[in-house]
Amino acid sequence: MLFDDLEHALAELDRTRLRRRRRVLDSPAGPRVTVDGRQLLSFCGNDYLGLAADSDLVLALAEGARQWGAGSAASHLLGGHLRPHEALEQRLAAFLGMPRALTFATGYMANLAVAPALVGRGDEIFADRLNHASLIDAALLSRAGHRRYPHNDWAALERLLAASTARRKLILTDGVFSMDGDVAPLDRLFALAERFDAWLVVDDAHGFGVLGAQGRGVLSHFGLPASPRLVLMGTLGKAAGVGGAFVAGDERVIEWLISRARSYIFSTAAPPALAAALQKSVDLIEAGDDRRRQLQDLITRLREGLAPLAAQRGWRLADSATAIQPVIVGDNRSALELSAHLERQGIWVPAIRPPTVPEGSSRLRISLSAAHGAADVDALLAALRTMPPTQPETAH
Ligand SMILES: *Cc1c(COP(=O)(O)O)cnc(C)c1O
Question: DSSP of 354-376, one letter per residue?
Fold first, then answer.
């Protein structure tokens, strides 16, 4: 009975082209990867500055392991908080210009920590409809009311806030949206947070290292004033090239998380070598204007090439000025066919399907890195131009 249900559900995933399959890389992550014995030009990664394979960073990781060992052996509160963890928090807080920072093993865990620690039953969370899955799960875990507003629609958010009688309110949003690449209107959201006395929690997984002065992220991009109601989460496995995440904010917020956030307290601290390497990542990010300029040039080149092609094929492009450049084709089959067409030409761009994106908005998610060259972008555009037009999928 249990297994009949599972087999039926898996078959249904196959029928609707929603079964997920993993590919094994036989090379380090980067613009050129080896898969099934073949080299592919990859536009999959979130390694926006090309740090994941940077030789200085790899050395810092190896030296960190030599000096501090392989594992941290305990949770942060019970003997697993080593000097590199502490130094990384201080480096991140200073870099971001925030009072305190707290590191986590992953961004998913960092997000699960914040909302449930700040609000609960009887309170309300106001969340963008396209927020990352980890923010949705955090809202559910908090037991607060979960009001979702249309994507980036701050006027709709204003109406929800004005109508709310909740004691505590929390606005929850991606800074850069992970599947669309567009940026949340944080100046507007911050003004609303001030007016309605709400927390503003921003997930900057895709802005940290890339946007703002020296890569300080989306808050710097908007020039928002320092405010205790702002809580910033960022990941360290994307532009920072290693893994992990941080939450930065007011002293009292961080102290509360240390004492109350369950995903922080009940989990082994990340290996100290990662924290040692991540201090080097922050140095490389801070000094990374050349890498950010290269990335920006590639974004412009790709968008200029995509615009006429999309118009001709009926593909939709997102309003994105960031490294995430989706080509929205609509149905699952078209997205998979386009991805397969590129792969036959040695180019790997993942097809993204529901539930990661809303029904009917399946897409290729092109992700650029400073480690790509202009010729790589040109190769991608040339391969896209050879795609034969597809018919929309008919009903099953
Ligand atoms: C990747 C991502 C996360 C999760 O971070 P991990 O460190 O990969 O767990 C959270 N939020 C957003 C918007 C992301 O893109």
Answer: TTSS-TT-EEEEEE--TTS-HHH
Between the CA of 232 and the centroid of ligand 1 the distance, in Å, is 13
Instruction: Name which of 218, 251, 248, 212 is nearest 233 in CA terms.
Output: 248
| 212 and 329 co-located in one domain | no
Best residue for ligand 1 mutational test, from 134, 201, 242 (most atoms within 8 Å of Cβ): 134
Q: Whose CA is nearest to atom 4 of ligand 1?
A: 107
The SS3 call for residue 275 is: helix
Best mutation site among 46, 114, 132, 202 for ligand 1 pocket (most ligand atoms within 8 Å of CB): 132
Domain that holds residue 227: 55-286
Encoding tokens for residue 263? 């995903």
Q: List phi, psi (to 5°) of 59.
A: -65, -40
Nearest-angstrom CA–CA distance, 358 and 350: 16
- Residues 120 and 175 placed together within one structural domain of the fold: yes
Find the helix packing angle between 154-163 and 186-195, rounded to 10°. 10
Give yes or no for residue 103 CB within 6 A of ligand 1. Answer: no
Residues 265 and 316 in one domain: no
Hey, which of 47, 203, 204 would you mutate to test ligand 1's pocket, going by the most ligand atoms within 8 Å of its Cβ?
A: 203
Cβ distance 167 to 120 under 8 Å? no
The tens digit of pLDDT for each residue in 67-88 reads 999 999 999 999 999 999 999 9
For residue range 114-146, what is the model confidence (pLDDT) as tens digits?
A: 999 999 999 999 999 999 999 999 999 999 999
Look up 206 and say whether it is catalytic: yes
CA of 265 to the centre of ligand 1 (A): 20
Residue 386 Cα, ligand 1 centroid: separation in angstroms? 33
Token readout for 128 is 């963008």
Exactly one of 178, 220, 263, 339 is catalytic; name it: 178
The answer as to whether 123 is a domain residue is yes
Beta strands 198-203; 169-174: pairing state? parallel
* Helix runs in 102-147, H state only: 107-118, 133-142
184/325 same-domain check: no
Query: Residue 257: inside a domain, yes or no?
Result: yes
* Residue 158: predicted pLDDT: 98
pLDDT in tens, 190-229: 999 999 999 999 999 999 999 999 999 999 999 999 999 9
Q: Rounded to whole angstroms, how far apart are CA atoms 71 and 61?
A: 13
